[in-house]
């Protein structure tokens, strides 16, 4: 074999072998997930609001598509991108402005928004978030890898500071509410 004929063959083999692994860059900002005590609210979350001494105001409230909850007396409260403590203060201030003399308010996340698993898994779809789960656990909840699923890493999409960021992450990465996990197809 001459050098001339070896070059196209080596280019072909390099391209072929590169196709065996799923493409994608690792994104360090996706690996350093913020802890849930600094959790910011978004559509799909369910909040438990307790106004002490006011049973008619204490209830579960779903965050709607516009990032708001709707409460009796005070109407809609914007919660998107805020943490539960900030929402507590907002509700207390609104109640203090003519409805309740000294409101004591507690807000906690009753149910986190779901996460999504797509691609080469047995049962792709939307699933309820469980605290402390990894990508590996999320794929297991979706029925495990399909027969052609690439098991060396997944593409994860997460909203960070209002921007959707997608990157390749290892299977031991922590999942956060609202994440979308895409399992790519392996070549062989």
Protein described:
The chain has 188 residues and is an alpha+beta fold. 21% of the residues lie in helices and 27% in strands. It has 2 domains: 23-36 and 113-183, Outer membrane lipoprotein wza domain like (Outer membrane lipoprotein wza fold like, Roll), CATH 3.10.560; 46-111, wza like domain (wza like fold), CATH 3.30.1950.10. The chain contains 4 helices and 10 strands. The strands form 3 sheets. It has a 5-stranded mixed β-sheet. Strand 1 (46-51) and strand 2 (59-62) form a beta hairpin.
Class of secondary structure makeup? alpha+beta
Average pLDDT across residues? 84
Placed side by side, the strands forming the largest sheet appear as: 7-6-10-8-9
| CATH level-two architecture of the largest domain | Roll
Q: Could you give the count of β-strands? A: 10
- What's the structural domain tally? 2
Number of helix segments?
A: 4
In CATH, the homologous superfamily of the largest domain goes by the name Outer membrane lipoprotein wza domain like
Largest sheet: 5 strands, mixed
Q: Report the helical percentage.
A: 10-25%
Poorly predicted ranges: 7-23
CATH fold-type name of the largest domain: Outer membrane lipoprotein wza fold like
Distance between the termini: 28 Å
Estimated share of beta-strand residues: 25-35%
Whole-number radius of gyration? Answer: 23 Å
Shape: elongated
SSE order: HHEEEEHEEEHEEE
């Amino acid at each position: 074999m001459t050098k001339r004929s070896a070059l196209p063959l080596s280019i072909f083999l390099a391209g072929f072998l590169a196709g065996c692994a799923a493409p994608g860059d690792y994104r360090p900002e996706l690996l350093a997930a913020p802890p849930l005590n600094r959790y910011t609210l978004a559509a799909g979350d369910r909040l438990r609001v307790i106004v002490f001494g006011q049973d008619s105001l204490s209830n579960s409230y779903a965050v709607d598509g516009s990032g708001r909850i709707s409460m009796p007396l005070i109407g809609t409260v914007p919660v998107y991108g805020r943490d539960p403590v900030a929402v507590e203060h907002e509700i207390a201030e609104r109640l203090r402005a003519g409805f309740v003399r000294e409101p004591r308010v507690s807000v906690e996340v009753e149910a986190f928004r779901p996460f999504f698993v797509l691609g080469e898994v047995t049962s792709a779809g939307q699933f309820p978030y469980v605290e402390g789960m990894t990508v590996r656990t999320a794929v297991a909840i979706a029925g495990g890898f399909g027969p052609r699923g690439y098991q060396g890493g997944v593409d994860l999409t997460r909203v960070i500071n209002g921007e959707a960021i997608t990157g390749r992450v290892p299977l031991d990465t922590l999942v956060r509410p609202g994440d979308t996990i895409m399992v790519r197809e392996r070549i062989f």
